[in-house]
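In the design runs reported in the main text, the only information available to the sequence generator was the tokenized backbone. The following block is the verbatim input for one such run; it is reproduced so that readers can re-run the procedure and compare outputs position by position.
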């Protein structure tokens, strides 16, 4: 659990952002969907194991955890530091009536577009209350990580790398995609990730990967299959990290190799720009422009801020005119696609924004891994 000093820091920062927007209260939404539970853990210390929950944070006064009645027996209610807890039949109705009792006119909502239950939004929208989308402001308020948070991020990074090396050790042609992934997932769960993980895959034959993510399944892997496992987990503290490297026992195709040749230059150009005061868009253009010079385009954004929620603002994208600040944490995950958008190459790394340049939190070179590497003796080819 965070220290009382850390909890007070979070609330003070959030309330400053609320006050700047003229809000009288904030509803923080979280549900079981992977990566969408983190804001509740961040503001209340409650771990969602099923269904959903809200944290009501007034501008003044104590916060409240608001559960749907059907979730009364789901989750450890003694774990959160927020002790005021209610279980109304329809949380949105309870929140609307409480707002009316307090005379609130303007309430922010983190997660209104993607996380809040429709029945609760309908109830809240019935009255004269003005609901203000607060995702960007909420994420920017928590974007710079404290020393306590950075310790949790580094712990999660150690866990994900432990799993990655278990995956490398398990990788052999003749196994299925799921069998190769299984030892990594075992490490993740054993070291505290719990259900907070999303491990998906890009793969394909003849040294190329198809440009669509999927769940690792029962397809048997051949030597020339290219595997790009996207590892995304938290540690016990609930902070997400992401990591990926390419696996192939045989040879990548000439097209894949041409993509790979651009990666070290693109990643290093981005890392050098991950510094205090630089615009996030500048980092994106450094990546995109490097691949463009090699004749390739990006499949989507270069990356995004990451923390207790899997995807936070700001993004690393062409229109992200947001200054970076020291100790922000970002996932950089450029997916390079061919001109038809059917074949790709992909990587993920987690970075800390530094004073003069970024810090990659994984000391693992970018290369094609064959399954013969050992954790302490990896050479770039």
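Verbatim output:
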């Amino acid at each position: 659990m965070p220290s009382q000093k850390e909890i007070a820091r979070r609330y003070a920062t959030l309330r400053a952002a609320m006050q700047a927007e003229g809000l009288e209260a904030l509803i923080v939404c979280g549900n079981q969907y992977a990566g969408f539970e983190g804001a509740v853990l961040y503001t209340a210390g409650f771990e969602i194991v099923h269904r959903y929950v809200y944290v009501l944070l007034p501008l003044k006064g104590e916060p409240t955890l608001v559960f749907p009645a059907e979730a009364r027996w789901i989750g450890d209610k003694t774990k959160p530091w927020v002790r005021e807890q209610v279980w109304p039949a329809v949380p949105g109705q309870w929140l609307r009536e409480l707002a009316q009792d307090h005379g609130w006119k303007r309430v922010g909502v983190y997660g209104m577009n993607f996380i809040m239950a429709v029945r609760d939004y309908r109830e809240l929208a019935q009255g004269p209350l003005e609901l203000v989308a607060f995702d960007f402001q909420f994420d920017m308020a928590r974007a710079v990580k404290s020393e306590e948070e950075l310790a949790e991020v580094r712990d999660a990074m150690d866990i994900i790398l432990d799993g990655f090396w278990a995956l490398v050790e398990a990788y052999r042609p003749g196994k299925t995609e799921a069998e190769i992934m299984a030892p990594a997932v075992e490490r993740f769960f054993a070291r505290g990730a719990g259900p907070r993980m999303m491990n998906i895959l890009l793969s394909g034959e003849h040294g190329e990967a198809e440009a669509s993510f999927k769940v690792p399944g029962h397809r048997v892997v051949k030597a020339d299959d290219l595997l790009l496992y996207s590892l995304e987990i938290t540690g016990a503290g609930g902070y997400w990290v992401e990591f990926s490297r390419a696996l192939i026992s045989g040879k990548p195709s000439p097209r894949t190799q041409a993509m790979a040749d651009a990666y070290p230059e693109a990643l290093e150009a981005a890392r050098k720009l991950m510094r205090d005061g630089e615009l996030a868009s500048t980092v994106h253009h450094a990546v995109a422009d490097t691949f463009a010079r090699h004749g390739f385009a990006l499949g989507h954004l270069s990356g995004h801020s990451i923390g207790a929620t899997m995807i936070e603002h700001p993004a690393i994208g062409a229109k992200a005119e947001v200054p970076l600040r020291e100790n922000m944490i970002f996932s950089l995950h450029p997916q390079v696609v061919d001109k038809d958008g059917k074949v790709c190459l992909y990587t993920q790394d987690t970075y800390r924004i530094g004073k003069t340049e970024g810090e990659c939190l994984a000391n693992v070179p970018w290369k094609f891994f064959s399954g013969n590497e050992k954790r302490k003796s990896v050479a770039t080819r």
